[in-house]
Design goal:
The chain has about 525 residues and is of the alpha/beta class. About 30% of the residues lie in helices and about 25% in strands. A 13-stranded mixed β-sheet has the order 2-1-10-9-11-12-13-14-15-19-18-17-16, with helices on both faces. A four-stranded parallel β-sheet has the order 4-3-5-6, sandwiched between helices. A four-stranded mixed β-sheet has the order 22-23-24-25, with helices on both faces. Helix 3 packs across helix 4.
């Protein structure tokens, strides 16, 4: 069944219920009023767009890039395209031209649909590569170009691709995760099945999220609301100063967060109205600093439910601390759902000893071990096979399991830096650093950050006659700024004589991380974190 059909089914029971609310604070850049759509209104708008896409020849097996930020247009175009079996490719409008061009070209999109303010940047990015894919704005969607790509035979089914989401990979360029109808339906149904602190009531929930619609997390919350007749309260981004006022005014009943948010909110001045126990049932997220969790819950009056999932795994096999005991302050991510069959492997590839940490490998129990998982990486069958080696999905995350069956997050084995909920591949940052004229050798490493979880550190060996000073760091930063989105830019620079290497000439990532931490402690690094700001390209 299509996502569109799930939406249509909900319209029958909740036609006049709120589907989408975008508060005034989040619409300030483009209009003077909030956005409010009922299920019926959203469905009717999607129907109009559906006819336009159909008339222009769009259908099963094609892809359309959506660069629509966190706007209402994203939802209605998604529904219209899904009704025809067209897959969406969400793209972050803050991407550098090089990042943008790569995703658009690699995805083999038939059309790029953007907000008017992103048109010039998108066209310029594609011009350099010679990609002729048509680009249209939402204001031009009534005059869609005729699609020249063939429509696939057959009808959409559970295996039909709904979205191609690009996520940072450990081997370089972002990887396109193919997400099916089954994947999306599992997103919604798994949320419904969680229960405990995360129990949802049909037709009553209002879920507020500041998270970007280019991420799986936002698709997760969208599907949960669609399949329960709830309302998505979508913000443009996280605004700390107005957050609680928006939560209160929007009548939110639950919220999604990333680790950086609790830390920022706890730094605000305490007020008598901080207690939301009568309004908010729960916060759902990941990456909250353990030392903040208990203090946050005591002050604001609702539980922060920590969980584990990834774009590749979806949420059908989510591990979730939605029931007691939750062991606050210990990075407890709860118990796996009953569908999960898992293994923990030590660094030698052997079964980890009871209670010892190991890389998490998982699959679904039964005859369909990949139910709810992604369908593979687009154009990368080798990597798609590698992550399923031995019949289990290799997560790259290290956990331990106690004698009660509770999971505790330990670390990542992958070369991934997680900053404010964004996964950043160290090798992607390194590839850009290597292009800088000043750099002879380099490695990116995660740096602990109390607010963001981790920050990007650049450990650099300079070419001869280049001085290891702030001027050099700023020059390298400026070079990277033209090629990477702001959150991937190095915040810290460490100038080294050489990098720690193994006998086989691989970077010793663990030792490098310790070297960088020690240099920060001694004040031997250059801190450019203040230069990392959205829109400062």
């Amino acid at each position: 069944m299509l996502v569109y059909k799930e939406f249509a089914k909900t319209v029958k029971g909740y036609a006049e219920h709120a589907f989408l609310h975008i508060p005034r604070q989040a619409t300030a850049a483009y209009q003077h009023s909030p956005v409010d759509l009922t299920y019926r209104q959203a469905f009717d708008e999607a129907q109009v767009l559906r006819e336009k896409y159909h008339a222009a020849g769009y259908g099963l097996g094609q892809r359309v890039v959506l660069m629509l930020d966190n706007r209402a247009e994203y939802f209605v175009h998604f529904l219209a395209l899904n009704s025809l079996g067209v897959s969406i490719v969400p793209v972050n409008s803050a991407f550098s031209p090089a990042e943008m061009e790569y995703v658009i070209t690699h995805s083999d999109a038939s059309l790029v649909l953007v907000l008017p303010e992103h048109l010039d940047k998108t066209q310029a990015a594609l011009k350099t590569s010679g990609n002729q894919v048509p680009v249209r704005t939402t204001a031009q969607s009534s005059r869609l170009p005729v699609c020249t790509q063939a429509v696939a035979d057959g009808a959409p089914d559970l295996g039909t691709e709904v979205a191609l989401l690009y996520t940072s990979g450990t081997t370089g360029r972002p990887k396109g995760c193919m997400l099916s109808t089954e994947y999306f339906l599992c997103l919604g149904q798994s949320y419904i099945d969680y229960g405990g602190y995360c129990a949802l009531e049909n037709g009553k929930e209002r879920l507020i999220t500041p998270l970007p619609l280019v991420h799986m997390n936002a698709l997760f919350s969208m599907m949960a609301m669609i399949m329960t007749g709830g309302c998505v309260i979508q913000l443009d981004r996280f605004h700390a100063s107005s957050w609680w006022g928006t939560v209160r005014a929007s009548r939110a009943t639950c919220l999604h967060y990333l680790g950086v948010m609790p830390a920022i909110l706890l730094n605000q001045t305490e007020r008598p109205e901080d207690d939301f126990s009568g309004q908010i049932k729960f916060g759902f997220g990941a990456g909250c600093d353990p030392k903040h969790q208990e203090r946050f819950e005591r002050r604001f009056g609702f539980p922060l439910v920590e969980g584990w999932a990834s774009t590749e795994t979806g949420t059908h096999v989510c591990i979730l601390a939605n029931k007691e005991p939750r062991h606050l302050g210990q990075r407890c991510i709860g118990r796996p759902c009953t569908e999960i069959d898992y293994r923990l492997l030590d660094e030698g590839g052997r079964e980890a000893a009871p209670g010892a940490p190991g890389e998490l490998l998982l699959r679904c129990k039964g005859a369909h071990p990949r139910k709810g998982f992604f369908s593979g990486y687009y154009k990368d069958p080798a990597e798609s096979a590698a992550v399923w080696e031995g019949g289990y999905f290799h997560t790259g995350d290290v956990v331990r399991v106690d004698n009660q069956g509770l999971f505790f997050f330990v670390d990542r084995r992958k070369n991934i830096i997680r900053r404010s909920g964004e996964n950043i591949a160290a090798v992607e940052v390194e590839a850009v650093l290597f292009e800088a004229a000043e750099v002879a050798n380099c490695a990116a490493t995660p740096i602990y950050d109390e607010l963001r979880g981790e920050e990007v550190g650049a450990c650099v060996v300079l070419n001869e006659d280049v001085q290891p000073n702030e001027e050099t760091a700023k020059a390298i930063f400026a070079f990277c700024q033209a090629k990477l989105i702001y959150y991937k830019l190095p915040g810290y620079f460490f100038f080294l004589d050489c990098l720690p290497m193994t006998a086989s000439q691989k970077i010793q990532r663990g030792e490098l991380k310790q070297i960088a931490a020690a240099m920060i402690e001694r004040g031997e690094c250059i801190d450019l974190c203040a230069m990392k700001r959205k829109g400062n390209r």
